[in-house]
Amino acid sequence: MEIHQSAVILLLILSVSSFTHGQPPAHIKPRYEKFLKQHYNPDMTVQKCDTVIRGNRDFIHSETENGCKKINTFIKANSNDIKAVCGKAGKPYRNMVASTKPFSVVTCKLHSGDTHPNCKYRGVQDTRYIVLACEHGWPVHYDEGIYKPNGS
User: Contact, 142 vs 106, CB < 8 A?
Assistant: First the structure.
């Protein structure tokens, strides 16, 4: 069996191309990873709000006296579908991007708590359009506001 040199070169190009397109640039990677930790959880349920938020140091928040983040939304989708909002599955909205289809989400709102990590949350499951800030095609921020296409 003879393998042509052009076939080997093509395979190498395809391999490198899929690798480089599968990872964010180095200067964006930390923000993308933080976004995933805070907002991506395909298995999230309303009952898991306390456990998931307490188990993640990125939820210590300086906007409150006690360090508890007031609200956090988890997107229940695969990461490729979320990333696609930064491309063809999104449309410009203010200085961010809004999804063209709704996503299943769980929003955890602070109910009570003395100080982090004793924050107590109540969760609500919903389906809604999401709004993201993207850099070079990678989501780096989730906007907690409610977006309704066409003012509906």
Answer: no
pLDDT tens digits for 25-46?
Answer: 999 999 999 999 999 999 999 9
Q: Closest by alpha carbon to 87, among 77, 76, 78, 98? A: 98
Tell me the pTM. Answer: 0.80
Nearest to 84 by CA among 74, 71, 98: 98
The dihedral through the CA atoms of 107, 95, 30, 19 has a sign that is positive
Phi, psi torsion values for 71, nearest 5 degrees: -150, 145
H or E stretch covering 92? strand 90-93
Question: Pick the catalytic residue: 111, 116, 136, 141?
Answer: 141
Q: Is residue 39 annotated as a catalytic residue, yes or no?
A: yes
Tens-digit pLDDT profile for residues 73-88: 999 999 999 999 999 9
Model confidence band, residue 13 (pLDDT cutoffs 50, 70, 90): very low
* 136 tagged catalytic: no
Annotated catalytic residue: which of 39, 61, 116, 136?
39
- Whole-angstrom distance, CA of residue 52 vs CA of residue 38: 9
Tokens coding 14: 């395809």
